[in-house]
């Protein structure tokens, strides 16, 4: 049996913001009899689109973020279903995830590259957000790098985004004051609905230095950075002694055509005995099971709210990815490819 399989390839490296013309959808044939020992044939169910993928669309040589190649299919974190298997631990009907699955309706994959999902009553899409890499990023970035203490002030940029919305909620569970930064009235109200103590609309700000000072009158103990640029600079002016600054992303710079300048004001890290630390969530891989178990309990107990921004169809993957850089999303963006 064979399957006609749509896939998305990279036609050109984006210059500035990505455009739909940088990508192409074509169709190939996948034959089930080509599955070899140790491999499985999977059907794509959900695709995760994330800002960091833009970095992979540059001509980079980085082991942590391997660059895409022209005229080859793109990959990201995805959720799929096993159609046929020649791998001992996986069988037909199993739901699986991979951190690097092709944007292709059907794929033949090494079984060892897939993680079988547990069976419970939670939506599958949660495993691309709170119960997957995004949730682990928020969990370990805040708790292991940020090390929040009860009563401290935690500030989160891109607070209406997939990671930021979870960071603030976890901060509240740990007894902290959670403050967010987001763009636009609708996103600000969304962030507040999650239980954040307050949220700053950066689109109304003329002077970020003064805005952060006014918004955080008692200073900042933990700043979870998703954006970089002038926001990070302004935060550095307002950190408390012993502050911790986990660096998760820098979405404001991903589409720059020139190398970003900064950060400035790093002397404040010295004068405040503060720590600024970048991290990759893969560092905490041995503890993913523990994190998933705890987040699962929080979800079932209603202590964490989910927000899945679901789109439908292969043709929506690229527009949904582009939307990330124009603020046209709230929460976690996933694209549903096939019915569960």
Automatic annotation (TrEMBL):
Enoyl reductase (ER) domain segment(s): 16-335
UniProt entry keywords in alphabetical sequence: Oxidoreductase
A Pfam family the protein falls into: ADH_N_2
Entries under InterPro entries matching the protein: ADH-like_C, ADH_N_2, ER, GroES-like_sf, MDR_fam, NAD(P)-bd_dom_sf
Gene3D superfamilies in the cross-refs: Medium-chain alcohol dehydrogenases, catalytic domain (3.90.180.10), NAD(P)-binding Rossmann-like Domain (3.40.50.720)
GO molecular function list: oxidoreductase activity, acting on the CH-CH group of donors, NAD or NADP as acceptor
PANTHER family documented for this protein: PROSTAGLANDIN REDUCTASE, PROSTAGLANDIN REDUCTASE 1
Protein name: NADP-dependent oxidoreductase
Phylogenetic classification of the source organism: Eukaryota, Discoba, Heterolobosea, Tetramitia, Eutetramitia
């Amino acid at each position: 049996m064979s399957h006609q399989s749509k896939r998305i390839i990279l036609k050109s490296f984006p210059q500035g913001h990505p455009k739909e013309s940088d990508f192409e959808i074509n169709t190939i044939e996948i034959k089930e009899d080509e599955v070899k020992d140790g491999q499985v044939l999977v059907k794509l169910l959900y695709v995760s689109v994330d800002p960091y993928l833009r970095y992979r669309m540059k001509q980079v040589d980085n082991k942590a973020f391997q660059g895409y190649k022209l005229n080859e299919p793109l990959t990201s974190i995805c959720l799929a279903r096993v159609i046929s298997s020649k791998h001992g631990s996986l069988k037909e009907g199993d739901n699986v995830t991979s951190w690097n699955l092709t944007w292709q309706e059907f794929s033949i994959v090494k079984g060892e590259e897939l993680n079988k999902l547990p069976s419970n009553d939670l939506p599958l899409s949660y495993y691309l957000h709170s119960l997957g890499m995004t949730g682990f990023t928020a969990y370990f970035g805040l708790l292991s790098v940020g090390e929040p203490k009860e009563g401290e002030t935690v500030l989160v940029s891109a607070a209406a985004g997939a990671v930021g919305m979870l960071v603030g909620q976890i901060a509240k569970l740990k007894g902290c004051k959670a403050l967010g930064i987001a763009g636009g009235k609708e996103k600000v109200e969304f962030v507040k609905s999650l239980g954040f103590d307050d949220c700053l609309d950066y689109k109304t700000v003329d002077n970020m230095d003064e805005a952060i000072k006014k918004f955080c009158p008692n200073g900042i103990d933990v700043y979870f950075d998703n954006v970089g640029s002038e926001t990070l600079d302004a935060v550095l002016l307002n950190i408390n002694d012993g502050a911790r600054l986990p660096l998760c992303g820098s979405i404001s710079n991903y589409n720059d055509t020139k190398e970003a300048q900064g950060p400035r004001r790093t002397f404040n890290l010295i004068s405040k005995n503060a720590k600024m630390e970048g991290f990759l969530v893969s560092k905490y891989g041995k503890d993913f099971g523990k994190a998933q178990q705890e987040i699962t309990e929080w979800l079932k107990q209603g202590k964490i709210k989910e927000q899945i921004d679901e789109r439908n169809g292969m043709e929506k993957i690229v527009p949904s990815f582009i939307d990330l850089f124009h603020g046209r999303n709230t929460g976690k963006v996933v694209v549903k490819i096939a019915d569960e």
